[in-house]
Amino acid sequence: MSAPEDIDPKAVNVAERKQRRKRRAAPKPSPQLLAGKERALKRAKARPLTPGVMLEPQAQGYQVTAPHSDLELWELQVADAFGTRSQSVMQTFLDQLRVLVPLAWDKDAEQWKPNETELNAALAMVADVQPRNVREAALAAQMVAVHWMQMRLSAAALNNGHMVLDRDAALASKLARTFTMQLDSLARIRGRRQTARQSIKVRKELHQHVHYHDYRGAGKTGEQAHDADARPTAQCSALPSSEPGGQILRLPSRKRQAGV
Questions:
Q1: DSSP-derived pairing of the beta strands 62-65 and 103-106
Q2: Residue 140 is assigned to a structural domain of this protein
C-alpha cells in the first residue's frame, strides 16, 4: 500500500475505488440529553462569534479573506480577535497562522492549499483568549503553535499504540510545561497573579541540657561558675586516673589580654 504522500489526487479514479460502508443506524438520544438541548443551545448562543476565514486562490498561492460578502464586518471581527485596529498587524497574524496549518487538496483549483478547517480553528483559539492588545495577541498565537506542536509530538510519541518513543515524549512533555508557563504569563500580564499557599507546621521539641561545674577549679583560678546557684544534678563516678586527686583544667583569666 502506497503512502499518502505518494498518491496523486489527479490520478485517483473515485468511481473505481471501493465504496465506503454506509453509516450505521444510530439510536435516538436519551430523554436526559433531549431535556438539556435547550440549555446547551442557550449557552452556545451566549458565546461570542469568532471570525471565519476563507482562502481565495490567486495567481500564486492563496489569500486569506472574508467568508461572506460583508468585508467591513469581517475586518472588525478580526480586529477584535487580535486586539488591534492595524491592518498590517491583522494581515501579518493571519499569514503567520496560515503557515502553521497542514496542506489540503483543493479539487476545484487542482492544487494544494492550507487547510481551512485548521486555520479557522487557529483563529478561534486566538479569539477565545480575547486579547486586549497586540502583545496579548502575539502570546495567544504562540500558544496555538505550542499546542499544535505538543499534540503532534504526543501522537508521534505514542507511535500508534506501539513502543513509546522516548525523544518525542520528552519534547512533548517540555511543550506541555511551556504551554502552562504561557498561561501563567498571560495571567501576570493581566494582573491576575497566582497566590501561593504555604502551610507551616510547628513541632515542639524538648531538649535537656546538663552542665557540670568544677568548683575546685573555679576557686583556684579566681573564676566563678556560670551560675552561682547551679549544682551538679547527679553524682557519677570519675574516670580512672593515675593521679589520685584528679586533673584540674586550667581556664584562661579574663584579665589576660589576647596574644599573651
A1: unpaired
A2: yes
Domain tally for the chain? Answer: 1
Residues facing residue 111 across a β-bridge? 106
User: Largest Cα–Cα distance in the chain?
Assistant: 119
Asked if residue 84 is part of any domain, the answer here is yes
Instruction: Pick 71 or 244 by higher pLDDT.
Output: 71
Q: Is residue 202 part of a domain?
A: no
Give the type of residue at 11. A
Inform me whether the pLDDT recorded for 223 exceeds 60.
Answer: no
Average pLDDT across the chain, whole number: 80
DSSP 176-231: HHHHHHHHHHHHHHTT-PPPPP-----------------HHHHHHHTPPPS-TT--
- Tell me the helix, strand and coil percentages in the chain, rounded to 5: 45, 5, 45
Q: Which triple of cell numbers denotes residue 113?
A: 492549499
According to the model, what pLDDT value does residue 260 have? Answer: 47
Q: Which domain holds residue 124?
A: 48-189
In a domain, 250, yes or no: no
CB 230 within 8 A of CB 213: yes
Q: What letter represents residue 78's amino acid?
A: V
pLDDT(123) > 90: yes
The continuous run of DSSP H or E covering 57 comes out as: strand 54-57
Q: Which residues fall within 8 angstroms of residue 64, CB to CB, at 6 or more apart?
A: 53, 54, 55, 56, 91, 94, 95, 98, 119
